[in-house]
Amino acid sequence: MAKRFVLLILILALGLGTYFLFRIGEDAGELAERTRLAPARSRSGGSPVLSWSSDPGSTPSAPMVTSTNAPESSAEPTLPPDAIPGEQVLMFYDDAHLRAFLELADEEGLDIVGRIDALRAIRVRVRDEAALRRALSRSPSPIARGPNLYVRRPDPPVPPEGVTYNAFGNTAAAWLGVAADRSQWGQGITVAVLDTTVVPESTRGTVAVVDLLDEPTGATPARHGTAVASIITGGGKVPGVAPGADLLAVRVMGDDGVGNTFTLAQGVMDAVDRGARVINMSLGSGGDAPVLGQAIAYAQERGAVIVAAAGNNGSDGVLYPARYAGVLAVGAVDADGRQMYFSNRGERLDLVAPGLGVTAAGIDGEAIAFSGTSAATPFVAGAVAGVWSESPNMDGRDVAELLVRYADDAGAPGRDTRYGAGVLNVGRVLERNTPGLVDMVLARPHIEQHPVYDDELVLALFGQNRGTKPLERVVLKANVDGAPVDLTFYDVGIGDIVRHDLRLTRAGVGERTVAIEQEISVVGDEDRSPHNNRMLSSLSVGLPTSDL
User: Fold this and answer.
1) 473 has which bridge partners?
2) Cα separation of 161 and 176, whole Å?
3) Could you give the CA distance from residue 416 to residue 545 in angstroms, rounded to a whole number?
4) Is the pLDDT of residue 294 over 60?
5) Which residues contact 89 (CB under 8 A, 6 or more apart)?
6) Which of 82, 312, 391, 438 would suit a FRET pair with 145, their CA atoms being 20 to 30 Å apart?
């Protein structure tokens, strides 16, 4: 009986094994059939699909490319922001691949309107999509392919009704702590301004001009580039932040304030090759262009410091090229140190600088009022040039880091999306090696929504040690709508922030204004600037996040 049972088990096992082997063979056959229906293309055929990066902190490096063998869709591809209709930018792996494509492009009658040989990049004006597809199908695949993108000077900001901001006029340089006697500041440093036309007669310094546009300058050139340049080296009655610097004016935008990322990339490359150590770009694009990212990387590898405007959209996310890692992204504040309503916000924002009604030079050398992140950016570029000229052996990245490290904290305590590391303070950078300076400063109170509880707000009272001496004991006293605060902080390092958070319920505060009185003091030391140790503020909780 036992033998029959074992025999039955063996027969069943043999039958099941035969069934599964049959199914495996059948599945393998189906897989082989599916594979035959979708043969792989050769390396030289087809065209890759460029994957644009949306990471705001991405380092400009070789663009990521993916290949696909799927049949082309009849649907229109989704273009990135600011795409120029009918223009493509292609980048190739090596010179041989570039030459092969150019030969095929000539056969197909393609319109090549620009080349950057160092990046093996070309700009194609596409009049016949079929011709482009034929050339790509027969050539080595480009490592990057995508539309050329518009770049624009940031639109002039329009002030909101009922809101008052304070303009700088001709006080911006002194407000930043720039030395009054600075005629040699910037000496030995070439600053490139990539912008609209710069009128040499209206700017100071040795001015070299490079024009990368095919179109002539109008009878009345745009004043944007001249205004930007005058803030850096001076012009007319404008003294400039770094009047000793040499100026390289690279025209990359027309009189209408519009250009493109390919020409801008050319400008970056040309500026560096001509010796520029600081590059100012008071312009921006809403999209990431690999050719521009590669040009930025080229400049950074050669030690240049790049400064760019965050943008005047009043929105989250700074523009490109400010958005690239390693670029100093600059926002704007008024003469009270408040973030301007138009200044773009984002994690990639580094600094804010004067950007409302600053005095700049017009095309005839006359004084004009200039506003926007376009105006704020050259203050930072000029500061880089000036500080670098005093320490010429420093690495450019270290110079840029000094400006960030010694910025005045503002907005929310610590780095934030509205002020970045804080407000540019050139005076602190210049005094960083002067020992024993005592300067404890109250910052404007900040209120924001509680991160967890919808019905609560967080009011931050804080100050910063902006001197050059660690402080043993700091006392913060405040009266918040009748509620007293008395706190002592110990061992406050240079640049450190002391803060106290108060939780407020919306029901308790209501719609009324809360009065805040603050005082901060250093125990055992005399503060060099007692005027910034006391502050009276009023708080209206009509908005979830605000600065007082």
Assistant:
1) 490
2) 28
3) 12
4) yes
5) 121, 122, 123, 124, 144, 145, 146, 147, 148, 261, 262, 289, 290, 291
6) 312
Q: For residue 70, give the 3-state DSSP assignment.
A: coil
Strand partners, 260: 150
Amino acid at 433: N
Alpha carbon distance 507, 169 (integer Å): 42
Distances (CA, A) of 145 to 52, 65, 92, 201: 10, 9, 9, 41
The mean per-residue pLDDT over the stretch 298-309 comes to: 98
Q: Could you tell me which of 425, 375, 340 has the C-alpha nearest to residue 238?
A: 375
Cβ atoms within 10 Å, residue 474: 21
Which residues are bridge partners to 370 per DSSP?
358
Q: Which residues pair with 50 in a beta bridge?
A: 65
Give dist(CA 308, CA 278) in Å, integer.
11
* Helix (H/G/I), strand (E/B), else coil: 479: strand
Residue 153 reports pLDDT greater than 80? yes
Q: pLDDT tens across 97-121, in order?
A: 999 999 999 999 999 999 999 999 9
141: which DSSP letter? P
User: What's the rounded Cα separation, in Å, for the pair 347 and 350?
Assistant: 8
Q: Tell me which residue of 314, 430, 307 sits closest to 375, measured CA to CA.
A: 307
What tokens were used for 180? 């009054």
Tokens 């967890």 locate to: 452
What is the Cβ-side half-sphere exposure of residue 521, based on CA atoms within 13 angstroms?
A: 9
CA 85 to CA 81: how far, in whole Å?
11
Helix/strand/coil (H/E/C) assignment for every residue in 397-443: HHHHHHHHHCCECCCCCCCECCCECCECCHHHHHCCCCCCCCCEEEC
CA 447 to chain centre: 26
Gap between the Cα atoms of 89 and 77, Å rounded: 16
Q: Which residue type, as a one-letter code, is found at position 78? A: T
Determine if residue 524 is left, alpha or beta; phi over 0 gives left, psi from -120 to 50 gives alpha, anything else beta. left
* pLDDT average, residue stretch 373-401: 97
pTM for the model stands at: 0.84
Give every CB contact of residue 465 below 8 A, 6+ residues apart in sequence. 439, 440, 441, 471, 474, 492, 493, 494, 495, 496, 497, 498
Two tokens, residue 367? 């004084």
In angstroms, how far is CA 310 from the centroid of its own chain? Answer: 6
Residue count of the chain: 548
- Tell me if 331 sits within 8 A of 418, measured CB to CB: yes
Alpha-carbon distance of 407 to 420, in angstroms, equals 9
Convert the pLDDT of each residue in 323-355 to its tens digit: 999 999 999 999 999 999 999 999 999 999 999
Pull the structure tokens for residue 373.
């992140």
Say how far apart CA 382 and CA 231 lie, in whole Å: 8
Helix, strand, or coil here: 191?
strand
Annotated active-site positions, please?
195, 224, 374
Residue type for position 275: G
